[in-house]
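Appendix B. Chain record.
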Amino acid sequence: MKRSAMRRTGRIKPVNRKRRAKKYARNFGDEAEAVRAMRCVADLAWTYCHGPVQAAHVVARGMGGSKGGRFDLVPLCARHHDAAGEAETSDRARFEAVTGRSLRAEADRIATPGIAALARRWSTPIGGHVDLDDYETTALAGWVRRRMQLQREGCREAGVLWTMEGAVDSVAVALGLYAEESPAGDVVGAMSFAVAICELAGWPS
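Structure tokens predicted for this chain:
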């Protein structure tokens, strides 16, 4: 039977460059270039690196990791990025178990300067929240929540009493919000920040 070539019935849909640029900015942004310039976090932890360093999302792409996570990037060489998998979150879990590396912890460490910049915008004025979009607010809240959880776990292991005031104070210090020019630099500002940051992170004040 003679086969005939398929005929296109309509024109190819043009690429929406504006939408593509917006998606890239949300998923990778300027942070990606800085991450690609870093050393692979799995270097010498399992197998030797091979290929260029890539900006990998903590959450696998198949589980939504590329849908807006420029503060959730870690540097992985091509070999280790492939080993970490992009289809299932379980692939990431196995990769972390083998390498002994927590991709979330690495991403939070790398993202701290960017998160600090968001926090300074967010806290000026205290409770304003006018300069952050929904994604940025979510990223800031997630970072704060994880930082508080880590401090609580650390206090439990050390047998030290955990307090919300101490947790908020450590977060403010980490984000550089006690600078002299910051609204959180005075007592009233610090108290307002404590309430606002707890509400943002979903913790009772």
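Further analysis of this model is presented in Appendix C.
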